[in-house]
Structures are given as C-alpha cells and as structure tokens.
C-alpha cells in the first residue's frame, strides 16, 4: 500500500503559472510579502506533515473507527497526538488574522493546505475544517466580547468548532427545525433539542468544543424566517470544569469516514449565546455553509488524486496480458496493465478530474482572497458574483466526478481493489458522502439554475461567459490549443442558449427547472473545467515554445487537456439531450402508481 504524497509540482503550476498567485498576493493589502519562495516553503511543510504524519493513520483509522461509550467518544490511535502536532505547527490559524493569534495568510493558501490534509486523511481533516468554518462565522457575526472569548483558543486549536444544523425529521429543510432557545435574564439562552450528523460533536482531540447551533426563539415566525444562531460551548469559558448541558447521544455507523465521529447531539437546556441578530440565523449560518461547500469541492479532488496516485503505481507494476500492438515487456510473463487502452482511459480520467478540479478550486479561493482583502469595489463585486455562480458547481460537480474517479481507481486494481489492504475501497466509501452533505447534488443544482442564474437574469453567468469568450478570442491562433478553444467557444455559446430554453419551458411548467437542473449543473461543470484545461494547455504550450528543462511535465499537461476535450467534454451532449427532454417523463407517473 502506498501513502499519499502531495502533488507539489502540479500545485506549483496551478498557483504560480496558471493563476499567477505571487502577483495576485502582491496586489492585496497585507499580503505583499507572500512570494513564490514563501508559498513553496509553506507547501513543502504542509506536504511533509500530511504525508509523514497523517497519511499513515488513514487506513488504521478506518479500520479502528471511533468508539462511543456513555457519551464519550474516543478517536483512533494516533489521532490525538497528530492533532497536537498540527496545533504546534500553527496550522489552525494559517488564514486567521494576527489579532486573533493567526498568521493572516490569504484564503487561497488555506485551500492549498486543506487539499493536502483531506487527501492524506479525510476523516482526520474534518475536525480542522469544522473549526475553520466556526471561526469564519464568529469573525463575521460575533460581538467583540464573543470574538475575544472564543477565537484565540480556536485559532490555537485547543478549542474546536462544529456546525449544528439539521434534526432527525427535517434533513435539508431547515425551516422545519424544532430546537428551542429561551432567553434568560443574564442575556444568555437555554437551548433544548436534538441535532444529528454533527461532525466532531464529541471527541477527545480538543480541550473544548464550540457548537454553532440553529434554534428558534419562542416568538419566532414559522419557517426559515424564524431561525436564530447561537454559540453553545461544551465547557463554559473561564470554567472548563463546568460542563454545559450538551451531550452526545450516539455516533453514526457509517459507510465511510469511519474515523470521523458523526454525532447525535442532545441539548438539554444548554446555555447558549445569540450570534448575530434574532431570526437571522440562517443568513449568518451561510458563512459556515458556504465555507463547507467549497471544502467539499476540494474533497472531490482529493478522492480523484488519491485514487490516481495509487492506481498509477499499481498499473505500472501489475503484469497482465500483452499489448495488442506487441509485447512491451518481452522479458516478463506479461505487460504492465498501463499499456492497455482501457486502463489508460481510467488513469487519464482520474488525472484530468484531479488536476482540472484543482484549477477550479484554487481559482475560487483566489476570488475569496479578492473579496476578503481587495480594496477595489468593482473587483470585489465581480468576484462575489462569480463566487455565487461557481460555488454550487464546485461542490456538486466535483463531488460527483470525484466519486466517479475514486471508482475508476478501484477498477484499475481489478479484484484487488475490492479488498481492504490496498485502500481503494476505503477511498470509494469515503468519497460517497460528498455528493450528499452540505446540500445534495439536486439541492446545489436547484440553487445554481434557480437562485444563481434565473433569479438575477443570468447576469453573473453572462459575465463569466464573456470572460471565456474573450480568452478564446485572444488566443484563437495558438497552435494545437486552437482546436480546443473552438470547442470551448461552441459550448460557451450553447450555455446561455440552454438557460434561455429552460426559462421558456418553465413559463409553461415550473417543474421544468427542477427536471433540467442536475443535467444543467453537470453540463456547466464540464464546460468550466474545459475552460481551465484550455488555459492550462495554453500556458504549457507557451512554456514549451520559450524553452524549458521540464518538457515532459508540460507535454503531459497538453496531452491531458486533449484527452479531456476528446473524451470527457463530449459527455455534455448527453446532458443537453436529457435537460431539454422536458419534465413530462419524470412527472407524469402519479405517485400512487409507483410500485414494485
């Protein structure tokens, strides 16, 4: 079994050569000192920690799982010790302002680090990701006193954070939640109710846990307009021997992520503090939810990357059959399976998804940098519009194709992929949840086509589409890349026409939007990745033309881009056919006629 190794050369390509991050940082107030050398040094340290400390715990953590005993959760061997190393290295505060004890680096540096953490040990990483989301929420909505009380210890990593949203009966429909919050004279609240699917709700790695909880005030309006947000600590600040009335009732027995405790949390009159304005909790929580959704886009890439690394090594060593064009290993009993076209299909698909998804994720992180640190109002507005458009695509599309890539990695191993020792079946099991949590693919698709496109007259889509069109027009004479640009331009023009077709159909039947939504999202994902692959191919070609000692790296980038355009982008044709086929085939069968 091989452990994960961070793909540092490709990360460097995306950060420095494709997205121009050193120049980007130089343009952001407070980030000017973050040059290419410092980026590389931080990346190397992150790669060292994740590959040497976390990756060896991934499979053993899956095998041991978390243990639950009378409200106490014990994580697998090595998790607590490695978390202490993580905190000692200052990683929890990588992107948090220095006023709270952090290092103040841009969000995009955190995205790079999160990819390495999640790739090395996805279950372990979720404790740090939950804390990051809680920190972001407190920074955005907390009072000065709340920030002073909680943030420094969370930035140190001594205290962790969770997101407590859903309940057993409501799933994604948070308007149905029942957890109650009653005001007390001292300004605090008493929360009562049960929350489920709480990652890290109870564990033995951090000293305290800060729960960010949605609940209803007694006089709150019905539905989502009557939800407030609260801080509920496990132990009361300033008195860590005083346990709050919040306990873990059980942990879930899951398909994957077995080393990550997914808890049922019971609030039995627990002391909490209002975060943000009353009845505006869902708006506040979106800070946390959007952070989580972007993290899931990164998760999709990690499963593709891990599967690719393991299946590539295996495919070069595993001997089976002879190549159709003649022996490639004449002195051996058979050829390595990497010579066979179908294995090449599986490997190149994983590579194209992992590397293309990385480009998209880092681009989104770059947008977040502009929003957080930029001083140009017009740029911030444009970045915010693009972020809204690309977030559901990154979350849903990359989680779907990431799961597919994990399955492809397993397929390369044949029957050996189905047994535990190689780690491939764990990668598949761990990947599956990404299409579900933080809003299923269907929910993200409705958000994309409904709220992010149709609701604003497709303005942000048109602006992003114009960006693609300008790129194609500026580089149409670029040698071998030119044919890719022609194909990209054709799909880009079709993108807006599809929106118009769906909108027209929805005027007669509102169900048309939901019927077309997932197919439209997948089409959008393949188009957006094609845009980034075309950019990557152009950069690679220009580098080759100007001379380089890394010809193999850049030629591989172009060949992978060509594979993407010839083998993966054509999937869009099927999505066009299905999204325009109408809602009739989905909705005409009455519910009572579904039977078996």
Tally the helices: what do you get?
Answer: 19
The biggest sheet amounts to: 7 strands, mixed
Number of strands: 11
Order of helices and strands: HHHHEEHHHHEEEEEEEEEHHHHHHHHHHH
Query: N-to-C terminal Cα separation, in Å?
Result: 43 Å
Could you tell me the CATH topology label of the domain at 284-444. Butyryl-CoA Dehydrogenase, subunit A, domain 3
Secondary structure category: alpha+beta
Strand percentage: 5-15%
Given this structure, which CATH class of the domain at 284-444 is correct? Mainly Alpha
The CATH homologous superfamily name of the domain at 284-444 equals Butyryl-CoA Dehydrogenase, subunit A, domain 3
Instruction: Give the % helix.
Output: 55-70%
The dominant shape is globular
- The average pLDDT value, as a whole number, equals 95
In angstroms, what is the radius of gyration? 24 Å
What is the topology?
Blueprint: H1 8-18, H2 21-26, H3 36-54, H4 58-64, E1 67-69, E2 72-74, H5 79-88, H6 107-120, H7 122-141, H8 144-156, E3 159-164, E4 180-183, E5 189-199, E6 208-215, E7 228-233, E8 235-236, E9 239-243, E10 246-251, E11 262-274, H9 281-317, H10 341-373, H11 377-412, H12 424-432, H13 441-453, H14 459-474, H15 481-508, H16 511-546, H17 551-568, H18 572-579, H19 584-587
Parallel strand pairs: 3-6
Antiparallel strand pairs: 1-2, 4-5, 5-11, 6-7, 7-11, 8-9, 10-11
Helix pairs in contact: 1-10, 3-6, 6-7, 6-9, 6-10, 7-8, 7-9, 9-10, 9-11, 9-12, 10-11, 10-16, 10-17, 11-12, 11-13, 11-14, 11-16, 13-16, 14-15, 15-16, 16-17, 16-18
């Amino acid at each position: 079994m091989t452990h994960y190794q961070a793909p540092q050369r490709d990360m460097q390509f995306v950060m420095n050569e494709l997205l121009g991050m050193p120049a980007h940082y130089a343009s952001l107030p407070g980030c000017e000192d973050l040059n290419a050398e410092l980026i590389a040094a931080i990346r190397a340290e992150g790669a060292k920690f994740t590959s040497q400390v976390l990756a060896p715990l991934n499979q053993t953590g899956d095998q041991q799982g978390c243990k639950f005993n009378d409200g106490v959760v014990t994580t697998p061997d090595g998790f607590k010790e490695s978390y202490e190393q993580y905190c000692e290295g200052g990683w929890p505060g990588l992107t948090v302002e220095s006023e709270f004890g952090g290092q103040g680096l841009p969000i995009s540096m955190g995205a790079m680090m999160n990819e390495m953490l999640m790739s090395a040990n996805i279950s372990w990483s979720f404790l740090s990701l939950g804390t990051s989301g809680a920190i972001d929420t407190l920074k955005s909505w907390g009072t000065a006193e709340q920030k002073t009380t909680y943030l420094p210890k969370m930035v140190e990593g001594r205290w962790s954070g969770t997101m407590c949203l859903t309940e057993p009966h409501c799933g994604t429909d948070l308007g149905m939640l029942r957890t109650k919050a009653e005001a007390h004279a001292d300004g605090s609240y008493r929360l009562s109710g049960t929350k489920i699917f709480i990652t890290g709700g109870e564990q033995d790695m951090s000293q305290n846990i800060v729960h960010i909880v949605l609940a209803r005030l007694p006089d709150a309006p019905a539905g989502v307009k009557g939800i407030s947000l609260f801080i509920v600590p496990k132990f009361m600040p300033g008195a860590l021997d005083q346990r709050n009335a919040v306990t873990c009732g059980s942990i879930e027995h899951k398909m994957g992520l077995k080393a990550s405790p997914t808890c049922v949390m019971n609030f039995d009159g627990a002391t909490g503090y209002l975060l943000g304005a009353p009845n505006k909790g869902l708006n506040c929580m979106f800070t946390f939810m959007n952070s989580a959704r972007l993290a899931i886009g990164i998760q999709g890439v990690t499963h593709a990357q891990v599967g690719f690394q393991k299946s590539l090594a295996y495919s070069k060593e595993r001997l089976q059959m002879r190549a159709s064009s003649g022996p490639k290993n004449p002195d051996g009993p058979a050829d390595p399976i990497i010579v066979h076209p179908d294995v090449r299909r599986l490997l190149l698909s994983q590579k194209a998804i992992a590397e293309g998804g990385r480009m998209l994720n880092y681009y989104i992180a770059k947008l977040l940098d502009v929003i957080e640190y930029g001083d140009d109002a017009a740029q911030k507005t444009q970045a915010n519009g693009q972020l809204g458009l690309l977030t559901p695509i990154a979350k849903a599309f990359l989680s779907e194709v990431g799961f597919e890539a994990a399955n492809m990695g397993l397929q390369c191993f044949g029957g050996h992929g189905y047994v535990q020792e190689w780690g491939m079946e764990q990668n598949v099991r761990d990947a599956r949840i990404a299409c579900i949590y933080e809003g299923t693919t269907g929910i993200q698709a409705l958000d994309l086509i409904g709220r992010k496109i149709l609701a604003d007259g497709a303005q942000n889509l048109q602006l992003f589409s114009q960006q693609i069109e300008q790129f194609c027009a500026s580089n149409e004479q670029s040698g071998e890349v030119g044919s890719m640009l022609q194909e990209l331009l054709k799909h880009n023009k079709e993108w807006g026409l599809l929106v118009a077709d769906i909108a027209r159909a929805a005027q007669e039947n509102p169900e048309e939007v939901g019927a077309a939504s997932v197919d439209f999202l997948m089409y959008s994902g393949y188009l957006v990745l094609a845009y980034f692959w075309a950019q990557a191919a152009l950069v690679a070609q220009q580098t080759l033309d100007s001379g380089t000692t890394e010809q193999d790296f850049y030629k591989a980038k172009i060949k992978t881009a060509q594979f993407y355009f010839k083998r993966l982008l054509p999937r869009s044709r099927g999505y066009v056919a299905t999204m325009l086929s109408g809602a009739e085939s989905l909705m005409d069968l009455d519910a009572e006629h579904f039977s078996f």
